[in-house]
């Protein structure tokens, strides 16, 4: 319901002459959501909602709820979520994307980011083929198919059975988004020294890099000890701030900076984010990303590679960060995903790719 909060409020506002108190507004949102999105009989939803409000709030609020819900049913076609999809976004963000992409493409973007989230697995290709993983998951009641971009990625129809499966227990499959896997593949290169996953989180990408670079020393760093506590290799995990890293200059041959960002590319998984973000947040994140790049660059050895990724497709956090950083440091951009195409960076626009919004750049230090 959080995903469609703006739409539900727009519908309610069109029927109410005056403001509706929060405790009644939320009950009406629930009723409207059930009518608009759930496969429940209309009369059951109306009756149950009205009776509950009558019992809890009194006859007058119940009469109001009855009128609102029945009017929505009469006007359902013109008030449909499809026709009003932009109202499921805060006005500043809807305006920004319409100006950037045009009305038609913006509508496609609104629609794809309102879809249910998709769940991906990473197959340990050193121990199992993708086809064997698909067959093994099928035996445990999980339907899986190959990912769109990444050779190790599987798209699954449900996640809970995967977590109970023998493949997951043996580490043959790991929950990891396909875009995140692409960032890991961008690190697949010759290395002559240790590798740093600078904002490691749960260590999923660090585990992937260890599989891709056998024998490499891959250090996971995060500023949250609880996240690092779930890492598969705690011996190479360190609590530290990427803005003030506890390492000497020039130590690492490769660094992955999967930077904190606005996260506007992953609204399918986290629809609540769009209601908390403001326009100024995008610039604040961009400034922080630029600071992290400058700091971590000092830790990179000459001719080392730094992979920069964010789950955002906003210019300030992607290409503009690179342009700004190019005025401070000497580097060349290398194709981060040569098995996909020959470009200087990877940018996923959800309405074009169908995937999450994501950005990956790979910089070689001169």
Protein architecture, described:
The chain has 366 residues and is of the alpha/beta class. The chain has helices at 5-15, 22-37, 42-57, 59-74, 91-101, 103-112, 130-139, 160-163, 166-169, 178-185, 204-212, 225-228, 273-276, 279-297, 319-326, 350-353; strands at 119-123, 144-146, 153-156, 173-175, 195-197, 218-222, 237-239, 252-258, 300-310, 331-334, 345-348, 358-365. Strands 5, 6, 7, 8, 9, 10, 11 and 12 form an 8-stranded mixed sheet that branches. Strands 2-3-1-4 form a 4-stranded antiparallel sheet. The chain is globular, with a radius of gyration of 24 Å. The N and C termini lie far apart (50 Å). The mean pLDDT is 92.
Give descriptors for this structure:
single chain; 366 residues; alpha/beta; eight-stranded mixed β-sheet; four-stranded antiparallel β-sheet; 16 helices; 12 strands; 16% strand; globular
């Amino acid at each position: 319901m959080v995903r469609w909060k703006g739409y539900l409020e727009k519908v309610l506002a069109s029927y109410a002459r005056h403001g509706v108190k929060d405790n009644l507004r939320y009950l009406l949102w629930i009723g409207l959501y059930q009518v608009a999105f759930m496969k429940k009989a209309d009369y059951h939803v109306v009756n149950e909602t009205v009776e509950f409000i009558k019992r809890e709030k009194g006859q007058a609020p119940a009469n109001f709820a009855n009128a609102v819900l029945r009017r929505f049913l009469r006007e359902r076609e013109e008030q449909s979520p499809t026709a009003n999809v932009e109202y499921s976004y805060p006005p500043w963000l809807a305006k920004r994307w319409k100006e950037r992409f045009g009305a038609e493409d913006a509508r496609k973007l609104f629609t794809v980011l309102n879809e249910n989230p998709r769940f991906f697995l990473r197959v340990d290709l050193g121990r199992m083929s993708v086809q064997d993983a698909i067959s093994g998951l099928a035996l445990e009641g999980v339907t899986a198919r190959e990912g769109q971009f990444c050779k190790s990625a599987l798209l699954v129809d449900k996640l809970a059975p995967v977590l109970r499966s023998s493949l997951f227990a043996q580490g043959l499959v790991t929950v990891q988004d396909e875009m995140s896997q692409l960032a890991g593949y961008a690190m697949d290169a010759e290395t002559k020294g240790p590798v740093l996953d600078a904002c490691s989180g749960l260590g999923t990408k660090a585990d992937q890099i260890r599989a891709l670079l056998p024998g490499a020393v891959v250090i996971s760093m995060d500023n949250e000890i609880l996240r690092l506590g779930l890492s598969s290799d705690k011996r190479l995990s360190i609590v530290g701030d990427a803005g003030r890293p506890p390492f000497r200059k020039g130590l690492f041959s490769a660094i992955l900076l999967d930077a904190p960002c606005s996260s506007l590319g992953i609204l399918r998984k986290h629809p609540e984010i769009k209601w908390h973000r403001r326009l100024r947040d995008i610039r604040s994140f961009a400034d922080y990303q630029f600071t992290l790049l400058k700091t971590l660059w000092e830790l990179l050895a000459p001719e080392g590679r730094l992979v920069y990724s964010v789950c955002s497709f906003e210019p300030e956090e992607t290409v503009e960060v690179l342009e700004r950083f190019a005025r401070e440091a000497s580097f060349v951009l290398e194709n981060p995903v040569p098995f996909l195409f020959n470009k200087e960076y990877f940018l996923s626009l959800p309405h074009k790719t169908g995937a999450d919004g994501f950005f990956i750049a790979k910089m070689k230090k001169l």
